[in-house]
Amino acid sequence: MQTIFITGASSGLGKAAAQLFQSKGWRVIATMRTPEKETVLSKLDHVHLLPLDVTNEAQIADTFQKAIAISPIDVVFNNAGYGLVGPFEAYSISQITRQIDTNFIGVLRVAHPFVKYFRENNIKGIFITTTSIVGIVANPLASVYDATKFALEGWSEGMGYDLKSFGIQFKTVAPGGIISNFAAAAMDVAQHPAYQPLYDRMLAGFSDGTLMQFSPAEAIAQVVYEAATDGKDQMRYAAGPDAIDAYKKREQLGLEKHRELVNELYR
């Protein structure tokens, strides 16, 4: 039985992935900040709940030890994160710091002990990180969030080079919109009246599907499962029709032409 370690498993994509891998016969170590509140995953066979806040280095070390005591780990799915939305000048420095600390450094904190664990135990493990289509094609009013996702794409590519000789892979799943409670539970919104027209245009585009289409979390979880099991030497997996479309357009048009297209969409 293979085992996957998942962060941010209390809701959305993380929870959907935990349920999918369990249904496929995997052992799942599902981590979240308050596992005592979880009532669905706790009832599933071969699912183990552990506490994890990706900004808490001591807790990460403790949870890592508990996880490898449960089972050898084959896949680490770094999924925890949240979105900071709004114009840059409206953000406080503490908001900026928290966004980078959670979305980027949090992933590195979790990955750090597992890299050594895989290498020293000759495990051909896989790291899968949830990035976003905005880590490939930036969105307005999310500059710091965009930056954390671009950073994760770059980190994953670099780590893939470093660990290739050990048979350890780094992959990213870059979703577009996901139907979940992300907006209510995992989003920090800063507003400024000068940017209200742009903000209104963005919301309208999300509602009418011209800027983003929202896929069920279960559909994105299928892409995570594909990345974990397809045996391919492939790093990036765009997930969801909007992400796939945006990725293709970026590749076809190139950076500058695509930037012009996005500017037109947000006029």
From TrEMBL:
It holds the Pfam family adh_short. InterPro entries: NAD(P)-bd_dom_sf (IPR036291), SDR_fam (IPR002347), SDR_oxidoreductase (IPR051911). GO terms for molecular function: oxidoreductase activity. It comes from the Bacteria. Keywords: Oxidoreductase. The keyword Oxidoreductase applies. The keyword Oxidoreductase applies. Belongs to the short-chain dehydrogenases/reductases (SDR) family. PANTHER family: SHORT CHAIN DEHYDROGENASE, SHORT-CHAIN DEHYDROGENASE_REDUCTASE FAMILY PROTEIN. This is SDR family NAD(P)-dependent oxidoreductase. It comes from Chitinophaga silvisoli.
